[in-house]
Design brief:
about 325 residues, 11 helices, 12 strands
Length: about 325
């Protein structure tokens, strides 16, 4: 029985993905890879290692008879700007290693791209699938190069590699990171702990966003689709909702009366300004039946109540 390897398994996407896969697979059919201490919170097979270490990756693939890799390990937008060389090594270098091993061991691969692949010259509203990709951040450069690398390995070596351009993702099961869209998670911590928050983006900064359950369901649905239905081998546009900080604040106020939010834009504003406001994901909906389930109101309620319960149980 071929097993599934998930790198970056303890991040925002990885945590929810492993939990979702755990419902579909036996615990000995999933292998997680972490660069830090192994928590083994999922009751699956856990390995420790650096995704840049190709020998260790190959050892894990051979040891556990891996057939599918969800390669989620990476640095987000802000961390990539702080450490561009490290971002290149992790975000792109490790992808190249995974793809090389996919050729050798006939692996099926998922790799996440991002709306960061777009740039200031891209059409902002209803951004099309095929458009200008001229990002001005290292994270975005990594994503564009990664998309082209994935397509190259599909054309050259017939690697079944699939990808989604994730929008800003919102979930509560893991602590928020330092991504540009992470304000949408930090804001709930502020609302629950102090009923106030200082946002690092302007109040009217509209960005494509998505609740984590939609992202996980879409990812699994893409990987389950027959190869004939996959027409995009760079990365699919992947959309759900879009909103601004002030619109999210209004929803939070309905659950937490008196909630106050002020705005002090920092260096992340420039990154946000280079990204689209909304996404045309009709290709994904047409090819493999993508559809989202969570709107802003539903997402806000689940986030607020879920995080409040999580904090109270600590």
């Amino acid at each position: 029985m071929k097993k599934i390897l998930v790198t970056g398994a303890y991040g925002l996407v990885g945590t929810d993905l492993v939990l979702a896969l755990r419902k579909k697979c036996k615990k000995n059919e999933i292998v997680t890879l972490s660069h830090s201490t192994i928590h083994n919170q999922f009751d699956v097979i856990s390995e420790k290692g650096d995704v840049r270490d190709e020998k260790n990756l190959e050892k894990i693939i051979k040891k556990h008879h891996i057939g599918t890799v969800y390669h989620l390990a990476g640095l987000l937008s802000v961390a990539s700007e702080k450490s561009p060389n490290l971002a290149w090594e992790i975000n792109l270098g490790s992808l190249k290693k995974v793809l090389d091993l996919a050729v050798k061991y006939k692996l099926k691969v998922f790799w996440p791209s991002s709306i960061a692949a777009f740039g200031p010259t891209t059409k902002k509203n209803n951004t099309p699938q095929h458009t200008v990709l001229e990002p001005t951040t290292m994270y975005g450069v990594n994503k564009v190069a990664g998309e082209l690398l994935c397509q190259y390995y599909f054309i050259k070596y017939q690697v079944d590699v699939r990808s989604l351009r994730y929008p800003g993702l919102i979930g509560y099961k893991t602590p928020p990171g330092d991504g540009t869209t992470e304000y949408s998670v930090h804001i709930f911590y502020g609302a629950i702990s102090d009923n106030k928050y200082t946002c690092f983006l302007k109040k009217d900064t509209r960005l494509p966003m998505m609740y984590i359950d939609d992202a996980i369901n879409g990812t699994i649905k893409l990987m389950g689709a027959s190869s004939e239905r996959i027409s995009i081998r760079t990365s699919y546009n992947f959309g759900a909702i879009n909103f601004s900080p002030e619109e999210l604040v209004e929803q939070i106020k309905k659950l937490s009366p008196g909630f106050k939010c002020d705005y002090k834009p920092d260096q992340r504003q420039k990154i946000a300004d280079s990204w689209p406001k909304s996404i045309d994901d009709s290709q994904a909906r047409r090819d493999w039946g993508w559809s989202h389930q969570y709107d802003l109101k539903k997402m806000t309620k689940i986030m607020f109540n879920g995080l409040k319960l999580k904090i109270s149980n600590k």
